[in-house]
Amino acid sequence: MPDPATPITDANGEWFELRATADVDLNGLQVGTTALSRILVPASGTCVPLASGGLAVFARSATNNGLPAEVPLVGTFGSSPNSVSLTNGASSFQIGIDGANLDTATWEVTATPGRSFMIDSDGTQCVVPTGVPEYSMGNTGTPGAANSPPECP
User: Fold this and answer.
1) For the chain, how far is it from start to end, CA to CA, in angstroms?
2) What is d(CA 24, CA 89) in angstroms, rounded to the nearest whole number?
3) Domain that holds residue 78
4) Is residue 64 part of a domain?
5) How many whole angstroms separate alpha carbon 146 and alpha carbon 80?
6) Residue 147 to residue 83: CA distance in whole angstroms
7) Which residues pair with 101 in a beta bridge?
8) Which of 60, 63, 131, 150 is most enclosed, with most CB atoms within 10 A?
9) The pTM is what?
10) Is the preceding peptide bond at 133 cis, omega within 30 degrees of 0?
11) If DSSP codes are grouped into helix, strand and coil, which group holds residue 76?
């Protein structure tokens, strides 16, 4: 969700989620736009497990005022140092560990205010289709839950 709907600002309403394709420990997870600059989960400490198929939601702000209360945040990406913001225009961001890129999400269109992007089962990306319910204050998407509908049009 690079561009939440007004009255939620980008600084308080941006989020993204990861889906694990295998059991993983999120310790050391990093994010960045051109380089892996922000540590999402410190490398030391107790294990932060994410089971295969599980979803982890990260918000730009720990006080995200757009996500439903039942969606737990695993980490934030907007506080200093090395804060990251999601660009409303064509852009991308990377996820990695120890400086090694694990995956890159790219969007080639300008974000639609209040509508998140989604990636379906065959890797097709789209703005969430019509029919996906609003989760908060004019914002549409499925943070922390399976995509519904599961496929892009």
Assistant:
1) 19
2) 31
3) 10-109
4) yes
5) 31
6) 27
7) 96
8) 60
9) 0.92
10) no
11) strand
Helices and strands (H, E) in the chain, number of each type: 1, 13
4 alpha-carbon distance from chain centroid: 12
| Alpha carbon of residue 53 to chain centroid | 15
Q: Using alpha carbons only, what angle is made at residue 146 by residues 70 and 39, rounded to the nearest 5 degrees?
A: 70
Could you report the per-residue pLDDT of 78-101, keeping only the tens digit for each? 877 778 999 999 898 899 998 899
Give residues with Cβ within 8 angstroms of 130, minimum separation 6. none
Tell me how many domains the chain contains: 1
| R_g of the chain computed on alpha carbons | 15
The CATH number of the domain holding residue 73 is 2.60.40.1260
Share of the chain above pLDDT 70, in %: 100
Amino acid of residue 136: S
Distance CA 52, CA 149 (A): 21
Give the bridge partners for 125, in sequence order: 119
**Residue 54 forms part of a structural domain:** yes
Is position 36 within any domain?
A: yes
The residue count for the chain:
153
Which residue is associated with the tokens 């939440």?
4
Is 103 a member of any domain? yes
Contact (Cβ atoms closer than 8 angstroms) between residue 77 and residue 84: yes
